[in-house]
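re: ur question from earlier - yeah i can do the single chain one, its not a big deal. heres the input i used so u can compare w yours
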Amino acid sequence: MGSDYRKAVLILAGLSLSLGVPVAWGQTANTFQPGFFQPVARFDPSRPVQVVLINRSDATVEYGITTDLGPDQELLPDEQVTLTIRELPAYLSIHTPSRPPFSEMSLRYVVSDDVAQNRITVNVAVNLLQEGGGDRTLDFNPEGGVYIY
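and the output i got, formated as tokens:
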């Protein structure tokens, strides 16, 4: 049994490695490098980055940036807002409101970048697949990568 078990583990490990690294909803930045935690977009960290947040869901969402100590702001369906991030690292949290009637829903972020304009566009949609808890946070790291958690 020991030899067969080791063979099965090696085969499964080989299959796992050959399938590639999972990324958020199949998105990767055009600077993809093999490895874990791939950025979904890139920006120039030496300049302020503009973030265009578009609510494509049917629900009001709240958003907040960790470098801004103010309260979360609301974004109604089909509205958009442009934010400026000047301090890194920064985390942008986007979620449905945590108050009655507590209709929290799973969200999905579709992210694109315009490196020349140093602009990241985030389309917030309902996670129709209902896999996991959905997307919750965008990480703007000091190396210029945007990651989804």
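The chain has one domain: 2-148. not sure if urs matches, ping me
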